[in-house]
Amino acid sequence: MSNRRVSGSLESEVLATLWAADKPLTSAEVAASLGDDLAYNTVQTILTRLHAKGAVHREQAGRAHAYTPVLDDAGLAANRMRALLDKGTDKAAVLSRFLGTLTPEEESTLAGLLKRPKRGAS
User: Fold this and answer.
1) In this structure, is residue 94 part of a structural domain?
2) Which of 25, 34, 74, 98 has CB atoms 3.0–4.6 Å from 29's, for a disulfide?
3) CB-CB contact of 79 with 53 (8 Å)
4) Predicted TM-score of the model (pTM)
5) How would you write the pLDDT of the chain (122 residues) with one tens digit per residue?
6) How far apart are CA 79 and CA 102, in angstroms?
7) Domain with 36 in it: what CATH number?
8) Are 27 and 60 in contact, with CB atoms under 8 Å apart?
């Protein structure tokens, strides 16, 4: 059986490590925190992807970059959902099919959220 992690799972682990830190972390510090089973290059790739998605802020730290989380797991999931929705040509069909996958509790939560005023609305 493979110990290979799913990409989204790795992103979540890296974000959790950054959220737990009390300062920005370099790729090497994140890799060390995650343990020996994850290659430095893998961590660096994940951090680069998270930066491109706007999930982390990157600043120069000597010859390396140090990363600070911007999004939590929920924010990252929302960004993924938005990206998938933007890929579709028939957004109504995608949303309709998505609604069909929700449990009654999830549907109720979504309905309640849709009734709330949008941020920035007057």
Assistant:
1) yes
2) 25
3) yes
4) 0.67
5) 445 566 568 888 999 999 999 999 999 999 999 987 788 999 999 999 999 988 999 999 999 999 999 988 888 888 888 888 898 889 999 999 999 999 999 999 999 999 988 775 54
6) 19
7) 1.10.10.10
8) no
